[in-house]
Amino acid sequence: MTGADDEVYSLLIPLTEDRLIVPRACVAEVVRFSKPQQQPGAQDWMLGSISWNTRELPIISYEGLLGKPVPAATGRTRIVVFVASAGQLKNGYFGVVTQGFPQLVRVNRDVLRLDATDGWPDTAPVLCRVKMINEYPLIPDLEKLELLLARESLQA
After folding, report:
1. CA distance 132 to 115
2. For the chain, is the Cβ count within 10 Å smaller at the N or the C terminus?
3. What is the DSSP letter of 92?
4. Mind listing the pLDDT tens digit for each residue in 113-154?
């Protein structure tokens, strides 16, 4: 990669102990946190749903998916609305609770390296961890995440 055409605008999404990094094109919007309406019998990571742009938006805790405790909401908590590009969700979107505001970054081969460490369950929707300057964000497997959400909505 050389030049500006080889850069990808991405978002660093803060979690409790980690960050996610995703292409900016995967995200529709970042909204203020509102308490999701819970579904009885749902997994701990499935926080419920909120109304967003006249749609029911399922909300998840990525920390919960990684087998960690679901963090309490604070004044900095936000919901990142992802585009469900794999076609598994009928409303076309889902939300991930964050622990702060996502940060816009430009990514290219010069600043991004694969990091071999893991630390998440085999079933977690994580492709890998990368080293990006002084950060070690996770790259989420958004297709797997969407499939998990679709299965959870069928069971609820």
Report:
1. 9
2. N
3. S
4. 888 877 788 888 999 999 998 899 999 999 999 999 998 876
pLDDT at 1 over 70: no
If you average pLDDT over every residue of the chain, what do you get? Answer: 91
Predicted TM-score (pTM) of the model is 0.91
Domains of the chain: 8-155 (2.40.50.180)
DSSP helix, strand, coil percent of the chain (3-state; round to 5)? 15, 40, 45
Q: Are 19 and 70 in contact (CB under 8 A)?
A: no
CB 81 within 8 A of CB 91: no
Using alpha carbons only, give the angle 2, 133, 15 rounded to the nearest 5 degrees: 120
